[in-house]
Write a structure and sequence with these properties.
474 residues; alpha/beta; Isoleucyl-tRNA Synthetase, Domain 1; six-stranded parallel beta sheet; three-stranded antiparallel beta sheet; 15 helices; elongated
């Protein structure tokens, strides 16, 4: 192995090994919401790749997620969970199949009706109540006079534009005063300010919110569809956003983290810009005051995928699509488009002509005979600079920047291989460099899009890059 390249990889691994464990989170889908290309682009692929690249560079990272089964949309009467278990199970299975299709791998996963999660959520509620943070107050709620359900306003508009009850069809809907539990956010301002590390634009939004008095946040609903509360409160259940956020703690504990204040770990949230309020305001309160945990939290906020995004089907090359999405989706709140024509062009020009073709030719070159190490300052600088650049991008949570730097490295490797004649030269030093180059590309490709690797290296396993490079004879 080239000693300078190996030294750089080992130095990065040594630094990352000293970092806290990263608990990388992705927002839970609420049944029966479908997840597709836009959700994987903004959330699940960046989160999964952040965890994989962190581990590749020598850090410790886990990816956690879950299915939220407490959405009122599935309820048959708007008041209870009667008869919806089969549908919840079907949607949970569908989400898991989608994750597998995109090769998103969770280290821990839950459903929000799991018993240990209920106990964890109640722990946070009791602690907040002990601090006087849960306030009971009257609020105006839309109620159906005929069936007594309390439909959310977003569900009351029918096909003909008239407001009606989504369950019984009645148009007799009236605002009524109902008693609910609220979270008094203003008293927890110190727990919110400066807790969540965000990029510039989301940070400015959060600062703008904090310039004003914080409203109380209603955390109960007029139904029994959500999680039941920690104490008797007839006809009310917990708003799903509370127990969904608390789920991150449940998942961390399942992995042996967060059991004591001495645990060193941090939360890294990857989420869309439409839910900054929940992760920037509510989540710090739940974590700091509901659980008394001081873990650092940072948010990596993504924009939306605009335009047509339903062109993915069973015939789509998902490994190539995953790489394309990571390459195209910004590390900012800027929106983007992912047209099918551009994907097909990327697949041909980048994936097939650059990446897979180079790997195949390097593999053949490395097998031509004995290999001997060679010192090449250009090769050393090329790889060492790339490793440091990628490490910086990953530490900042900039998955697109890391992906583009890796693709650039692969292109540079291709140019170097041609200049040095590695693909046809019978020199033992050329074969050695071909083998080293191939290992580096495979390691990074396995983190970006694991589906590619079995095509060219059936026995490939996820390992720290420094260990991979140590296997190259020196």
């Amino acid at each position: 192995m080239n000693q300078r390249v190996l030294d750089v990889a080992r130095q990065i691994a040594a630094r990352r090994a000293c970092d806290p464990v990263q608990v990388v989170t992705a927002a839970f889908p609420f049944v029966p919401a479908r997840i597709g290309l836009p959700h994987f682009a903004s959330t699940y692929l960046p989160a999964d790749t952040q965890a994989r690249l962190t581990r590749l560079l020598g850090g410790r990272a886990v990816l956690v997620g879950g299915t939220d089964v407490h959405s009122i949309t599935l309820s048959r009467d708007g008041k209870t969970r009667a008869g919806i278990e089969e549908a919840c199970a079907q949607w949970d299975d569908e989400y898991r199949r989608a994750y597998a299709q995109w090769q998103v791998r969770f280290d821990a996963y839950l459903r929000t009706d799991d018993q240990d999660h209920k106990e964890t959520t109640h722990e946070a509620l009791r602690r907040l109540e002990e601090q006087g943070a849960l306030v009971e107050a009257a609020t105006s709620v839309l109620i159906c006079d005929d069936c007594g359900a309390a439909p959310p306003p977003r569900m009351t508009r029918s096909a003909d534009g008239q407001d009606c009850c989504p369950w019984c069809g009645s148009t007799t809907l009236r605002q009524q005063q109902r008693s609910h539990l609220f979270l008094d956010l203003e008293q927890f301002r110190p727990a919110i300010e400066g807790t969540l590390a965000l990029e510039k634009a989301p940070s400015r939004w959060l600062s703008g919110v904090l310039e004003h008095s914080l409203d109380r946040w209603c955390l109960t609903r007029d139904n029994l569809v959500g999680m039941d509360l920690h104490r008797n409160y007839p006809g009310r259940s917990l708003y799903l956003w509370f127990d969904s956020l608390a789920g991150y703690v449940t998942l961390a504990r399942r992995l042996g983290l967060g059991q004591s204040s001495e645990d060193e770990f941090e939360f890294r949230h990857v989420f869309g810009k439409n839910i900054i309020f929940h992760h920037g305001i509510i989540w710090p309160v739940i974590l700091r005051r509901g659980f008394g945990m001081g873990a650092r939290i940072s948010g990596h906020v993504r924009g939306f995928v605009m335009g047509q995004a339903d062109w993915v089907d069973d015939a789509t090359d998902m490994a190539a699509l995953r790489l394309f999405v990571l390459f195209k989706t910004p590390d900012t709140i800027s929106d983007c488009t992912l047209p099918s024509a551009e994907f097909l062009q990327f697949k041909k020009r980048v994936v097939e002509n650059k990446v897979l073709n180079l790997l195949s030719r390097l593999g053949l070159a490395a097998q031509r005979g004995p290999a001997e190490p060679v010192i090449d300052l250009r090769w050393e600088a090329l790889v060492a600079d790339a490793l440091n650049d990628i490490d910086v991008a990953v530490q900042r949570g900039c998955v697109q920047a890391a992906t583009r730097r890796i693709i650039a490295l692969i292109r540079e490797c291709g140019g170097y291989a041609v200049d040095r004649g590695l693909l046809w030269n019978e020199d033992p030093g050329a074969r050695w460099q071909a083998a080293e180059m191939r290992r580096i590309i495979l390691a990074f490709l396995g983190a970006l899009s694991p589906g590619f690797v079995p095509r060219v290296e059936p026995d490939h396993q996820e390992r720290v890059l420094a260990d991979v490079l140590s296997d190259v004879p020196s």
